Structure formats: C-alpha cells, structure tokens
Amino acid sequence: MAADMRLPAPRKRSTNLPKEHGKHLVAPGDVITTDSGFMRGHGTYMDDEKLVASVAGVVERVNKLICVRPLKTRFNGEVGDVVVGRITEVQQKRWKVETNSRLDSVLLLSSVNLPGGELRRRSSEDELAMREYLQEGDLISAEVQSVFADGALSLHTRSLKYGKLGQGVLVQVSPSLIKRRKTHFHNLTCGASIILGNNGYVWIYPTPAEQNEEAGGFVTNTEPVPLSDREVISRLRNCILALSVHKMLLYDTSILYCYESAFHHQIKDILKPEIMEEIIEETRRRILEQEG
Amino acid sequence: MRFRGKVRGFTPSDDLRLDGRSCEDYRYVEVETDVVSNTSGSARVKLGHTDILVGIKAEIGRPKLDRPDKGCLEFFVDCSANATPEFEGRGGEELGTEIANALYRVYDNERSVDLKSLCITPMEHCWILYIDVLLLQCDGNLFDAISLAIKAALFSTKIPKVQMMEDEEGTTEIELSDDPFDCVRLNTENVPCIVTLCKIGQRHVVDATLQEKACSVASLLVSVTSKGTITCVRKIGGGSLDPESIYEMIEVRPPPLNWTQILASTDHATGLAYLGSCGGTAGIAATSQGHWSWLWSSLDSACPLWHLWQSGTSLKSDEPTRLGAAPPSAIIPSEWWCRFVPLVAADLHTWRGRLFQDSQLQEAVSFGI
Question: Does residue A33 sit at the B interface (CB-CB below 8 Å)?
Fold first, then answer.
C-alpha cells in the first residue's frame, strides 16, 4: 500500500516556452481597442467608447469584426466535427446526447444505421425498439450533421466507423485542446486505439483484433480485456491528463511522444507533479524538434 | 450526472485500476496546516481533486452533564456549493449531516483525543473544540480526506493556558495569559484516521474516485489509530456485503495473531475460552466439545462481522485464516482492550451479558496462568 503525502508546492511556470508571436491574449476587462470603426463579435462589449473583452482568450479579427475566442469554453460544434457523447434521454424518434456543449445534441432515428439495410424506412416498430440499440448511459461516437437554429447539434452515425462504443476509457479535457486534424480515429503504435472527439471527450480502447465490417455500430464486445492492453490504456490516459494539465494541444503525435517519454515511469507516478513536468518537458522538446 | 457502472474483467489476479494504481494505493496527498489565521488550528488537504478545509476554534463552555470532567468536540460539516452542482442551495445538507454523524462516532473515544486535558474546572468550565469542515471540491473519498484534515488541524491547534483566579467576593474568573505563544498543544498520536474500502466486483479498493464509487455497491468505513485500534466500523451504500468479504477487507494487512489462554471460571459453561488480539482488535473464541465459536470481538457492536458468529457458527480450529497459523500459546499481548458486546451463544449461554473491563480480564489472565 502506497500513500504519498507532501506539502503543497507552488506551480512552476515553464520558462523556456516559445514566444507566441502575433497572439493577442486578453483577460476579462482588458481593453481591446479604442477605435470605434470595428463591429463587435462574441466575447466583447462596449464600455464608453472602448471595446472591452468579457472572456479570457485570443482576439480574432476578420476585416472589421473583432471577437474573442475563449480558451476554456463549452464545445461549439461545426458541421463535420467528430464527437464522443453519452446518451441522456430516449425520446420519440430521437436520442438526446450529452456532448459538453450548451445544449444536448440530438441524434435522430433516421440518422443511425439500423441492421437490415441502409435505406430502410423507419417504421413504428423501430421507434419502439429504440432502447434496444442505444440506452441512457451508452457512449457513442458520431459526426455533426448540422446545427439547429438554437445552437443544438444534430448528429449522425451513418458510417461504420461511428456507433456505440464498447469497452474503454473516457477522458474529459477542454475542447480547445483538441487539434483539428483530417482524421480523429487513430490506431496508435503503442497498442491501443484512440478517438479524439472535438468536444473534448477522448475515448481510448483496445485495438480490435479484426475489423468486422458486418456487425455495424451496435454490437459491443464484452470479453475481458487482457492486462497488457489495460496497462497501455491506463498509461495513455495518464499521459492525456498530463498534457491537458499543462495545456498542450492533443493530437496523435503529441500523445505518442508523451507515451514514449512516460514509458519507463510507473503508470501511477505519471500524475505526480514533478514527474509530470519532466515528461511534458521532454514531449515539448521533441515536438519543437520535429516542427522546427 | 448519473451513469450505470458496469464492471467487467476486474479479476482478482490483476491489480490495476484506471489510473495505474493498485487496489491499495492512495492518490498523492497535499497537507498544509495553519492556513486560516483567526482559528486555533486549521488544515487543508488535497487528495486528488478532493479539497477539504478544516478550522478549529477553542471556546470555553460548560461540560456535558454525563461527562463533567471532560471537554468535548463539536463537528459541523459544510458542503460548499462550489464543490459540485448537486450541493446548490440545500442539496449538501444531507451529506453534511451524514458526515458529521459519522465523525461524532469516530472520535467519540477516550483513547483518541485526550478529552480530560481539555477540562478546566470539573462541572463548570471546559474547552469545547468546534471543528468546522468545509468541502471545497468533491472527487470521491471524502471521509479519508476529512479525517486527515481533522488530524492535521488538531495537531496544529494551540489552546491558550488558563488560570482560575478567585476574587474577594468568591466569584471565579478565568484569566488567559497575554503571551500568544503560551499555549498547550494536543497529543494527536492516537487520533484515528478513516479508511474507506469500496467493494467493486469481487475486490475492494482504497481511495476510490468518483467513477469507481459509481461502480461500487457498498463501502466499508473503518476508522483506525496508528496502533491498530479500531474505533468505528460503518457500512455505507445500498448494496449488501458478505461477512466473509468484510473480514477480508479489514484484514488488509493481517498482522500475526497472539493468543492468550484463559481458563473459564466456574460460573461459565464448559469449555475453554481463548482471548486473542490482532493488532488492537481483541476477541474471544471458545470451544465446547471440539466446536469453536467466535463469541465476541472488539469491533463495533453493530458491525455485521459480529452477526456472522452470533448464530453459533462452528469454526474449525485448523483454519489458519481465522485463528492464525500459530497455535494458542501463553503469549500475552502488550496492548489490548475490551469493549462490551452482548454475547449470544447457543451452547455457552452463561456468557451472555458479561461485562469485561480491563482489570477484570487481567485478573482472569493472571489467575488462569
């Protein structure tokens, strides 16, 4: 039994961070500009003649429009984003999915793949059998099809790579830390697979042995996962938490570098502050080398 | 948000949790004392994301009527609305009272905090320690963190020295010394710490996070001092616990059993009785015509472990897990204590209602050997 007790230590600021050129960071109450020719966008308000920021984030300027994009925010979905969500309600002909956004997203019955064919007409029997496919508490991966007028997202799982998620680990990070890439489904070389949802939900799961295309998205594998896979998944989970604590962007390369730096530590030690800093320093260095 | 926890593949041979810890590992803890300036003692504990702040104020008051020569501890637990959205408004009151009641039970023990030292004048004045617990952030394992914080706060508590002055009219006045550093510190060696064991699948885990708590059916709360004395055992949660698994949970690290043999005196039924201690837990096992019965143990009388043996279940003497590998011998343990638990045994009915005090049992021991 190990119990590690210590006195709290002040958090260290990383001194060798690369200077961010051209990024105008503001805090709530900071004056952005006093020029009155700009239109004000999200995250700003007018105070006398000055344009003041109301959230902490980065100032973005598009021609005459100034808005502030906050660093810590709820997920604002756009068409084509991959999300990982949890079913909260089963309603008539649709499911409500929680995706870390301001409103629960909607997954219509007509947007899922039902066994029996792609273009089958949805009958009333399908409606009554909705709970057999997805229940409250299930995790799904889906793509954003459209955005409703009130800002709610409409999801679809109309591809075989989306659907109900089986055994794995969910890690919740801030949505702004997920880097937008071409693909969000990765089979990492360390022995696990990962889905980086744009909404900040990261799903780590053991790589399926063979890709069974016929099963569709609703059959989950409940075989016990072997210990070696579970160790890889736990280590990845701790690495992702370490990266998110240090506010580093999450994408497959950064996660892989972090995993390799953390490989010779014990899995539970990765979350200790001093070891976390060491691992993140090395990861940062390797990423800079690779980019520069 | 509530989600159903499904447990699969948590086999006894693997010892790996979600964050890589083994079943008996704690997350790293940060402890800080003397954080609040206008209290007699304070502490802050961070266990993972669980954040607890404890402040202790010492006030002079009247002692309780049934304990005229002792001070007392008063607990108040405040679940701040910042901890989780469920604590908004009055949502946290229920949890707060549940925790406060558990704390009263845990610390209500002569041996944990020396309450006699808090007495100024018997029946008139005593120190009352008001212990306020504030939950700043909730990430599972509240009881452990709270007990750590209380122990640290009691350690840092400074109680001013008082002097009783008699006036000419006969009224007594209490005088506190002017020097702020002239104070008494409490002895916190025997203050218990709470260990919460959550049952998940077939195993039990220590220091469960919120996710692990959602998957567990029931938990066992054991408060134990550094010497191994158990002051309180409590079961929380809606699920049921097998008595076998409770025994397994408590014996997380089984120390060797020392047994002392006493002979039954004439006013008891036939048979031999063995008094043994395991750390600070003492127990009496008796045999009558080769059938063993575990009559009594110094755990809390409401502990379900006791109920297992209440019905007179036979216990074979060659079961090493229960009686220990060593045969009964005349080893007298250095520290043991007894508490009264009503004894019910089918064949040893005359043991019922016997009160064992320290002195009585010592006599019996010296008489028998």
Answer: no
Phi, then psi, of B160 in degrees rounded to 5: -65, 150
Task: Determine whether the interchain pair B19/A268 forms a contact, defined as Cβ–Cβ distance below 8 Å.
Answer: yes
Q: B1 and A2 in contact by Cβ < 8 A?
A: no
pLDDT tens, chain A, 292 aa long = 667 778 877 777 666 566 666 678 899 998 988 887 888 888 899 888 889 999 998 898 888 999 998 888 899 989 999 999 999 999 988 999 999 999 999 999 988 887 766 667 777 877 788 888 888 999 999 999 999 999 999 999 988 889 899 889 999 999 999 988 999 999 999 889 999 999 999 999 998 876 655 444 566 777 888 888 999 999 999 999 999 999 899 999 999 999 999 999 999 889 988 899 999 999 999 999 998 7
Please name which of A152, A69, A65, A160 lies closest in space to residue A107, comparing C-alpha atoms: A152
By Cβ distance, the residue of B29, B32, B44 closest to A4 is B29
How is residue B177 written in tokens? Answer: 């010394």
0.90 surpassed by complex ipTM: no
Query: Is A265 in CB contact (< 8 Å) with chain B?
Result: no
Listed in order, strand segments (DSSP E) in chain A are 5-6, 25-26, 31-33, 39-40, 44-47, 50-53, 57-62, 65-70, 82-91, 94-98, 105-108, 139-147, 153-156, 163-164, 169-172, 185-187, 192-196, 201-206
Residue B34 CB-density burial (10 A; 0-12 exposed, 13-18 middle, 19+ buried): middle
A18's tokens: 């690369």
Say whether residue A246 is in contact with chain B using an 8 A CB cutoff. Answer: no
Angle at A242 between CA A183 and CA B9, to 5 degrees: 75
Mutation pick from B7, B13, B16 vs chain A, by most beta carbons of A within 10 Å, is B16
Question: Alpha-carbon distance A115 to A163, whole Å?
Answer: 12
* Model pTM score: 0.75
Q: Which residues of B touch A224 (CB under 8 A)?
A: 8-9, 11
